[in-house]
Amino acid sequence: MNERSRSSFESTFQRTESEYQSSKDGHPAGSVATAPSPWSSSRPRDSKSTIEEEGLVESWDDQDRELDQLSESIQRQREISILMDREFDQQREVLEELDQQTDLTGLRLGGARIKLDQLAARLRGDASSWAILGLILLLVLLIFLFK
């Protein structure tokens, strides 16, 4: 096929294709059929549709404001939860240290209790020790009275 006949064939093919598309969907070839937009200025507007559109826009604006407020609230809650997490970590550390100190104090008290029990056992078994202790206390009392 030479260049001239090829060009003629392509133009005929394109025209035929255009006519086919035009007859198929009722629109000119190459155009896309779309539903008219409610905000399109090409369709005639009555006052009811304008009021409805304004109501939709106001509703969407209200929703946007509410979503912004919700977003801010969620952000504040997130910040608060982060602060609470830090505080819980600090409190946990303090409680762990207190637990260690309490265990150490318990061990000390246990040792002191054992020593007191040993002293009490020695004192119970030795009645003369009680007598000597009583006499010493009586002597100290008399010294303070007659001085």
Describe the structure.
It contains three helices and no strands. The chain has 147 residues and is mainly α. The longest helix is centred in the middle third of the chain and has 79 residues.
Number of helices: 3
Strand content: under 5%
- Report, as a whole number of angstroms, the end-to-end distance: 148 Å
**Helix amount:** over 70%
Radius of gyration (Å): 50 Å
Average residue-wise pLDDT: 77
Instruction: Outline the biggest β-sheet.
Output: none
The arrangement of helices and strands along the chain is HHH
Summary tags:
147 residues, mainly alpha, 3 helices, 0% strand
Please specify the SSE layout and strand pairing.
Blueprint: H1 3-25, H2 47-125, H3 127-146
Give a short synopsis of this structure.
With 147 residues, the chain is mostly helical. Helix content is 83%, strand content 0%. It contains three helices and no strands.
